[in-house]
Each structure stands twice: as structure tokens, then as C-alpha cells.
Amino acid sequence: MNEQNDITDLQNYVKHLIPKGSKKILLIIALFMGLIVIPKSITIIPAGHVGLQDFFGNVSDKTLSAGLHFINPLLKIHKMTIRTQEVTEQANVPSKEGLSVHLDVSLLASLNPEKAARVYKTIGSEYIRVVVIPQLRSVIRGVTASYEAKALYTSEREAIANEMFSHLQGPLLERGVTVEKVLLRSATLPSILATAIEKKLEAEQQSEQMKFVLNKETQEADRKRIEAQGIADFQKIVTTGLTDLFLRWKGIEATSKLADSENSKVVVIGSGKDGLPIILGGQ
Fold first, then answer.
1. Average pLDDT, rounded, for the chain
2. Half-sphere CA count of 221, side-chain side, radius 13 A
3. What angle do CA 268, 271, 273 make, to 5 degrees?
4. CA distance linking residue 207 with residue 210, whole number of Å
5. What kind of architecture, by CATH, is found in domain 85-189?
6. What is the pTM of this model?
């Protein structure tokens, strides 16, 4: 009973402290605070991005994926894209023989979402400028120096791009960036040098074409030689086998067939040259 009286006395004391009409003021203040706090408790991460949770400078390793999230209103959210980005670089670099070559290279890369927090803490949001571009410049110079200038005008061009990709993939992956592809878009040499290389390549192509023609002619000559040898061998065999006795026997055989035929009427008289009968007429 005494406890209930104490609670009642406390309520009366609070009512005595709060003047009439103050409740409305408190309600308005509460609504106002709610309008401020509620929006800060909701964040939307766009598609192709991750959200980094920053609590007074302490960045959490746990990132927010795309979508709607309810968060601590005191958190600050940093949004970083994980979409594929194109990094272009133009550079004048020396070839293997020391010639200056102007290259236009594109790198397709994206931020690894699982390492986004570490990238932000160790490098910052400008990781493309701080890490990717310097690494790309270094690789372009290093790889190009191991190839001759003419390689940029041949099928080796693709090999150069693939080698650049291999040199970039490992170091950038360690820093949280995934390399997707390297494209060697264009290569420009001094006009005089470019003309000389083009003429050299044209001469090499003509030389290869001539080798092909000569090889084809050699094969054709071999074919004709084999064919002629076959004909000669055949004639030799036939000539050797056609003796006088053989020819006379074939004549007798033909005469016998004519005599036995019911559809033929022939007159056989005397003896001609080589002792064979002379055949006159025939229907």
C-alpha cells in the first residue's frame, strides 16, 4: 500500500513540474526527431555497388549489398561501384630495338566486392588513380620493350595484349581489383618507320606466296614425272608382250568367232600375209 502511494506521489510531482501544454511541445519535438532519425536509419545501395559502414572513422569489414537496409543512424555509408570500368592509357614507349612507339591501351577491371572494405581502408575510393593506372603504365613499358616494333603490325599484337594481362592480373588482384581484359587498341610509329615496316611485311608476304607457288609447281612436276614413268612402264610391258605368235593367235581367235556367229556372213579365201585367211564382206 505504501509503494502505491509513493508511485502516485511521483506522478503528481511530475505533473506539477510539466506545465499544461508542454506535452504537445514534447510530442512535436519527438516527431521532429523522428523525421531526422528515421531517414538516417534507412539506406539504399544501388545495383552494381556495395556500401561501406563507417562509424566515426571505424570502417566495418562487412559490406552492404545492393538493396534497402536499416542501419544505425550514426553510421556513414560510403558507396563504391563494383561494375566493370574502362581505364585508358596512351603512352610513348620504346620497342626492343629502341624505337619510340605510341600505344593506346584499354584495361577492363572491377572492384572485388569481398575486398572493397580493405581497398577503402588501405587505398581509398580513388584506387583507380592510385594503384591501377601506375601499374598499367609500368606493364605497358615493360612488355613493349621485349617486342620488336613490327610485332605491333602482325598477329603478335594479340600476344602482347595477353602478356600485359598476365603481368597485371596478379598484382592488382592482391590489391582487390579484378582484371578482366587488356585491349591494345592502336599502335602508331613514325610515318617513315611505319612505311618501311609495311613494305618489309609486304615483301615477306610476297616471298611466302612465291614459296607456295614454287612448292605447288614442284608437286605438279613430280606428279607429271610419275605419270610419264607409269606410261613408259606400261608401253614397255605391252611392247614386250606383243610377239608375232601372240598376234597370229589373236587373229585366229577372231576368225573363229566370226565363223561361229549366226549374224555374220563372211567369205574366207586363201591365205594372206602372216598365214591368216582373207575375210571379204560381212553383214
1. 79
2. 6
3. 125
4. 5
5. 2-Layer Sandwich (3.30)
6. 0.58
